[in-house]
């Protein structure tokens, strides 16, 4: 485990458009170690290569799973352990309060700047939801074809069937984690907004409140359009262990 921790200590390596930076560490080493760790925890791990859509869905979901503020190093580290499956997905869950704490520590010349930063971050989240959702629907439709094929192709081995079902479970997991990450982002923005309303009240808080409401509305639409099939289990496939999926924590307010 010391080796795993050392590799994960490289930390998240974001690239363009909020996606993980393409390199050997992100693309090969950490996923391989994460697969070994996930198998040891009894989680589904498919032996199949990703389809183009599955890979793209994971790339699009990266920024929505990770904590919003890039300087929130500790929570970025926990989230990277979870994202790569090196760490236990329940144990290594970032604290949404880290966003507000990090934002409060930053030195801005204007007291309005923190509200503007929140608005920019929320707009970035909103711009990423629709592309991820479209790709998740594409993947879910392909998984229905995959599950149907398992039922009528007679000469599939037990390993092939298990690997296909594990991939369906893994794809569902990605949608779960993105939805969980968005819930954490909302909690982070709400907590930070409440704190700044008391610390440095400005008119820009109204704009931040409106943007937060718009983000919550976008997430609600995602639940209907994108997450419905993947989260609610319409595909007839064996589910992973309950602890494999996140539970959305209760809303919190930073005091």
Rounded average pLDDT? 80
Query: How large is the radius of gyration?
Result: 19 Å
Total strands: the figure is: 0
> How far apart are the termini?
36 Å
Percent of sequence in beta strands: under 5%
Major sheet details: none
Helical segment count? 9
Regions with little confidence, pLDDT below 50 for 5+ residues: 1-9, 229-255
Structural class: mainly alpha
Rough shape?
Answer: elongated
What report would you give on this structure?
Helix 3 packs parallel to helix 7 (158-199). It is elongated and about 65 Å long. Mean pLDDT is 80; it is low at 1-9 and 229-255. The protein is 66% helix and 0% strand. The chain has helices at 2-8, 24-40, 52-65, 73-83, 97-105, 113-152, 158-199, 204-225, 227-232.
Provide key terms for this protein.
mainly alpha, 9 helices, 0% strand, 255 residues, disordered N terminus
Produce a short descriptive summary.
With 255 residues, this protein is mainly alpha-helical. It has nine helices and no strands.
List the helices and strands and how they pair.
Layout: H1 2-8, H2 24-40, H3 52-65, H4 73-83, H5 97-105, H6 113-152, H7 158-199, H8 204-225, H9 227-232
Region (Disordered): 1-20
